[in-house]
Amino acid sequence: MKFDTVIIGGGLAGMACGIRLAEAGRRCAIVSQGQSALHFSSGSFDLLSRLPDGTAVEDPIRGMAELAPVAPEHPYVRIGVERCGDYALQVPEMLRKAGIPVVGDCRKNHYRITPMGKAKATWLTMDAYLRAEEPGRLPFQKVCIVNVEGFLDFYPEFIAEEFRAYGVTSRFGSVNFPDLEKIRQNPSEMRSANIARVFDHERNLEALAVRIREVAADSEAVILPAILGIDRNDAFETLRKKVDMPLYLLPTLPPSIPGIKAQQALQARFRALGGEYFLGDSVLSADLENDRVKRVYTANHGDMPFEADSFVLATGSFFSKGLLASPDRIVEPVFDVDTLFTPDRSEWYTLHFFDKQNYQAFGVVTDASLRLFKEGRLIENLYGAGAGLAGFYPVQEGCGAGVSLLSAFYVADTILNSK
């Protein structure tokens, strides 16, 4: 099979790179083992929330300009602040075209409300999810928090406790229907995705609206866990119109509906542009000639290789097994390209769970174009994008989604310009 570009990894970086290339008319394939980290998404996309020393960032683009002296290996430094700013302006439109409506500004972080009710700085938040322009200020003073009976991945009491610090009073409501009783018979089935399918049916959506109006009559707004619209895109808007009052969603513990919806929307957009998506497949080996990847072989296609002019490695970090730890080194398992890590294993981590862990910044070695190296030799047509890149701390710096999206755009443009 012959393509212009083959992308290995179907997460946020792989999908964004594939969409950008396909929009430019390139024939692309994505090979994806399975679920990506998007399934754990909270409905927001971070760009840069903190500097490496912990200083809070209000303007992400301005914050990027401060990275070079203290984090020279950071992907934003490799890409360049000006390009990062340009890409950050283009990302929301790409997401909206895929059917993921987002709000936010790359020059000013806003605050999304987490599943525990805390305010966390972020760049873009999916429409319908609760957010605030300031960390201690919400758009209401009296709210009703409504949960499904028996749903354990959502914590109204903890949320109300956090809201109390904002000067917001909360009351509680619960809902239960015969269709919910069916999945409640097995506690392991009471998960957000299964509940969302119940509310894909109009009769249950109508019953939910009736119940909300009953329990929230004197409230200024209603908060629901993200349990709407896994198979229908209009569920939230339909419910909002039926309730006829401000309605907000909060993400739940994984698996998350916003993450699943984002993954589905990006896949659909990529395929609509002519891209070919091979789900449940993995790359086993590759042929290299004259410092170029010529073809790769996958588990499902046997001796039928994927040939391309360029290849993109977007398999992620340790979470998705894009990086593996051996006793003495960090290994990239697909191409065995060079990785950046600390030789002394005792320095890879600390025993304090919430500390900045050094292993989080380990990743593949790249040049300025994000091309990869193998045994010190540059592979001319193999690029890296996303969480597997070295030099950044996605959680502490609040930049995981931003690195994935901006590096994907940068690699795609580099490939297009190289033609």
Q: What is the CATH C-level name of the largest domain? A: Alpha Beta
**Alpha-beta content class:** alpha/beta
The total count of helices amounts to 12
Strand content: 15-25%
Largest sheet, in brief, is: 8 strands, mixed
Task: Predict the CATH topology of the largest domain.
Answer: FAD/NAD(P)-binding domain
Total DSSP E strands? 22
Q: What share of the residues lie within helices?
A: 25-40%
What is the first-to-last residue Cα distance? 20 Å
What is the total domain count?
Answer: 2
The shape is globular
Note poorly predicted spans.
Answer: none
CATH H level, superfamily name of the largest domain:
FAD/NAD(P)-binding domain
Mean pLDDT: 94
Report Rg.
22 Å
CATH structural architecture of the largest domain: 3-Layer(bba) Sandwich
In short:
The chain has helices at residues 12-23, 60-64, 75-79, 81-97, 156-165, 178-184, 192-198, 202-215, 235-243, 257-272, 394-397, 400-418, and strands at 2-8, 28-32, 44-45, 102-104, 110-113, 119-122, 124-126, 131-132, 142-148, 169-175, 221-225, 247-250, 276-279, 283-289, 292-298, 306-313, 324-325, 330-331, 339-340, 363-364, 371-374, 377-384.
Explain this structure to me?
- The protein has helices spanning 12-23, 60-64, 75-79, 81-97, 156-165, 178-184, 192-198, 202-215, 235-243, 257-272, 394-397, 400-418; strands spanning 2-8, 28-32, 44-45, 102-104, 110-113, 119-122, 124-126, 131-132, 142-148, 169-175, 221-225, 247-250, 276-279, 283-289, 292-298, 306-313, 324-325, 330-331, 339-340, 363-364, 371-374, 377-384.
- The chain is built from twelve helices and 22 strands.
- With 419 residues, it is an alpha/beta fold.
- The mean pLDDT is 94.
- Helix 1 packs parallel to helix 10 and helix 8 packs across helix 9.
- Helices cover 30% and strands 24% of the residues.
- The protein folds into two domains: 2-106 and 260-418, FAD/NAD(P)-binding domain, CATH 3.50.50.60; 130-250, Rossmann fold.
- The strands form six sheets. Strands 1, 2, 13, 14, 15, 16, 21 and 22 form an eight-stranded mixed beta sheet that branches. A four-stranded parallel beta sheet has the order 10-9-11-12, with helices on both faces. A three-stranded antiparallel beta sheet has the order 3-7-4.
- The chain starts with a strand and ends with a helix.
- The longest helix is centred in the last third of the chain and has 19 residues, at 400-418.
